[in-house]
Amino acid sequence: MAKSVRKALDENGNIVDVATSPEQIKEVTEVKAEPIKKREPKEYIFRLINKVYHASPNRPPYPENMFIRNTDVIYDEESSTERNIRYLEGVNTIFEDEQEHLSDSKKRQMPEIRFVNGVLRVPSNKTSLVKFLLNSNMYDKKSKRMEHIMPVYTLLNFEEQEKQAINEAEVRMNAMKLAMDAPAEIMIPHAQFLGVRLKNQYNEARSEKGIRVDYLNFADKNPDTFIKTYNNPLVKVEFIIRKAMNVGMIDLATTKGQALWGDTKKFIAQIPDKADAIKFLSEFCLTEKGKEFYQQLKSIAD
């Protein structure tokens, strides 16, 4: 089995390839998680999508009562055909072609499907109504919903919302821990990359503690971005390139579209039209052609 390779920074700031051995990959792939049994809710709660009023203490944003039809024409994925569906109380199928044996009076039944203040609660034992609501084109998450029909309602999935809230909290805590423990050599380049000010309004360098406060605040408010960019080789390289430009080590002004060494005016790289010079040079450092350029730049970071 071929080794998996990823880029990382070593303790000296060099960009290196880190290989994951086949044994490590095998260990991961052989781990089997126990399947999680899906809980059947006591009731399904559907909510209207469109609000019609400005919410106030005395008036919810939805109409007090809204009725929807008990029939629809849907695309049935099992048979790969269009089929008529119809909800009838006490009938265990929603497909009209399976209701032919019913009496005419039963077929003409018009059961009430009513949203009260925007909400419809359906006990899970009303299986036909649940199936109708989840298969109708009026349901916003209906698979292969007929495009000409606007969705009317959605299903509130509290279990999924709870899982999402837990995941978001875990990501936030992980980001905060990284921000708190990050050594200065990782934090400073990353903070600059994230837009944290390294100097005050008088153009004086801020203290490490002051920078870390804003660094923590960013991690708290933007945990996903923080984690995705933390200790990223591009972040470190971009920091060095910005520093080199500030001290005149890289010249972008003499020849349009070209990066030159500031002292010798020797050619470094051609920058494509409309490309961000800093971003392009950062990515250039991670290529085979840019290795020597990066090694020379590293001298200013020490």
Concise summary:
The protein has 302 residues and is an alpha+beta fold. The chain is 35% helix and 18% strand. The chain is elongated.
Ordered list of secondary-structure elements with their pairings:
Elements: E1 4-9, E2 15-20, H1 22-29, E3 43-48, E4 65-67, E5 71-76, E6 81-86, H2 104-107, E7 114-116, E8 119-123, H3 127-135, E9 153-155, H4 158-181, H5 184-193, H6 208-221, H7 223-229, H8 233-246, E10 250-251, E11 258-261, E12 267-270, H9 277-285, H10 291-297
Antiparallel strand pairs: 1-2, 3-8, 3-9, 4-7, 5-6, 10-11, 11-12
Tell me what the structure shows:
The chain has about 300 residues and is α+β, with helices and mostly antiparallel strands. It folds into 3 domains: about 45-155, no CATH class; about 170-230, no CATH class; about 235-300. Helix 4 (about 160-180) runs antiparallel to helix 6, helix 5 crosses helix 6 and helix 5 (about 185-195) packs across helix 8. The strands form 5 sheets. The chain has a 3-stranded antiparallel beta sheet with strand order 8-3-9, with helices on one face. A 3-stranded antiparallel beta sheet has the order 10-11-12. The chain is elongated. The mean pLDDT is about 85. Strand 1 and strand 2 form a beta hairpin. The protein contains 10 helices and 12 strands.
